[in-house]
Design a protein that fits this description.
There is one protein chain. The longest helix is centred in the middle third of the chain and has 32 residues, at 125-156. This protein has one domain. Helix 7 (181-200) packs antiparallel against helix 8 (205-226). It has helices spanning 3-29, 35-62, 78-104, 108-120, 125-156, 161-175, 181-200, 205-226, 228-233. The protein starts with a helix and ends in an 11-residue tail after the last helix. Helices cover 78% and strands 0% of the residues. With 244 residues, it is mostly helical. It is built from 9 helices and no strands.
Amino acid sequence: MPWDFWLIFFVLAVLLPWRGRHRMKKMLAEPATIPRDRILLYGSTILFQWSIVAIIAWRSEARGYWPADLGLAVHGGLRTLTAAIVGAATLSAFQWFNLRRLGRTPGKTRDFMQQLAQRIFPQSPVEFSIYLALAITAGLCEEFIYRGFAMAVLHRAGFSIWLVIIISSILFGLAHLYQGRGGFVGTFVIGVVFGIARIAYDGLIPAMTWHFAVDAVAGIAGPKYLLGTASASAGIQPPTPAET
C-alpha cells in the first residue's frame, strides 16, 4: 500500500476518532449549547468532511483509481433505484422507532443520549436546515471515504471481501466512537450492511441514500423523543416532518 494511503488510514483510524471524542468531551463539559454552537458544529463538520474527500480523491486519482473503482458509478438502473428507496424507507422507520424506544426507556444510556442530543441535534427549523446539509454531506462523504476509498484500497491490497467489509466497518465505527461504546457497535453493524450493499450493487448510490435517510430522521426523531420535555420547557419546538 502506498505511503499516502497508509497516512490516510492512520488519520481515519487514530486522528479522526481522537478528534471526535475530544470535541464531544469538551461539549459535554459545557452546561449546555446554544444555537450558534450547533450551527458552528454543523458547518465545521461539513467543511472538514469535504476537505478529507478532496484529499482522498486527489491521492486516489494519482494512484490510478478510477471513479468506478471507488464506487462512483451507477449499475443496475431500476434495481439500484428500488434498493435505494426501499432501503431508505426501511432504515428510516427502524431509526425512528429505535429513538422512540430509547427516549421511553430510563437508564444511563438514555441519560447519555439526552446529553448528546441536546448538544448536537437541531432544535429549530433554521438549525434543522443546516443539519440537513450536514446529513447530505455525511451520506456522500462518509460513504465515499469508508465504502468507496477504504474498501477499494483494501480489496486491491489483497484482503478477502469479508475482511474488507469488516475493516472498513471498524474504521466507520471508530469515527463515531464519540457516541460511546453503543454508538461504535451500532455504527459498525450499519457499516457492515452498507459494505454488503456496496458489493451487491457495485456502487455507492444505495448506501449513500440510506446513510442520508438515517441521519435526517435522527435530526427529526432525536429532538422529538430525547429532547421533547426539555425543548418544551424552554419554549423550543423541534422541527416536524412538515418543516423539512
